[in-house]
Recover the amino acids of this structure.
């Protein structure tokens, strides 16, 4: 079946603009994660959802970042008043559940965000 | 929170030799330790994982060992091939849930 998909693959925006990044998880996966990966670094946790609710948003860097998953499937990461430091690859991952059975997290291809 | 460190940052090996990457973690409650492989411009892909109730796991040419007392785990790749060239990330779960903290990654270069 289809893997995790993310759109757009690339996004270039100007400082101060608003952007939305979309993630479509694997069908049937209830847990969804957002990570941010800067050049030369490992993925950095931002937020995860179990179903429709944000189970843990402690990785969001500040209140300019927000994410939703209204129907428990597709998720949108929203960034307001973008700054140059927000430039990174934003990765989405999904897993069957988030419970301690440690289901594999499957990653999407990422959205490369560039803030000019 | 969880802090994961990887050593060395870059590793070059001759084709056919073995490669070993070591990670240390800080949270004694961590129970799950996956390794991801990321090729240039591609998504991270899980290659092997280990849970805290075992000390070693093998899958063909890849193995992972875990020492919970010392809080470190290692990836072993035997009979390396050019297609093993990639960045490898180790990770550990936060406080025993499925959030992952990643290391900075190791660039492995297999020289033909």
């Amino acid at each position: 079946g289809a893997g995790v998909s993310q759109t757009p693959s690339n996004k270039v925006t100007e400082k101060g603009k608003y952007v939305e990044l979309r993630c479509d998880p694997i069908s049937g996966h209830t847990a969804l994660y957002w990570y941010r990966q800067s050049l030369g670094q490992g993925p950095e946790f931002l937020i995860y959802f179990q179903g429709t609710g944000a189970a843990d948003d402690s990785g969001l860097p500040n209140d300019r970042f927000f994410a939703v998953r209204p129907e428990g499937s597709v998720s949108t990461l929203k960034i307001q008043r973008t700054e140059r430091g927000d430039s990174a690859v934003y990765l989405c991952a999904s897993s069957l559940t988030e419970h301690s059975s440690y289901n594999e997290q499957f990653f999407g291809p990422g959205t490369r965000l560039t803030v000019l | 929170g969880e802090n994961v460190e990887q050593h060395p940052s870059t590793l070059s090996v001759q084709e056919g030799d073995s490669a070993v990457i070591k990670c240390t973690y800080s949270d004694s409650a961590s129970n799950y330790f996956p390794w991801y492989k990321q090729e240039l411009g591609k998504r991270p892909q899980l290659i092997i994982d280990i849970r805290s109730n075992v000390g070693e796991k093998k899958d063909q040419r890849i193995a992972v060992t875990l020492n919970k007392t010392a809080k470190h785990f290692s990836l072993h790749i035997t009979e390396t091939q050019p297609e093993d060239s990639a960045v490898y990330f180790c990770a550990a779960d936060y406080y025993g849930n499925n959030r992952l903290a990643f290391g900075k990654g190791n660039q492995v270069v297999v020289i033909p």
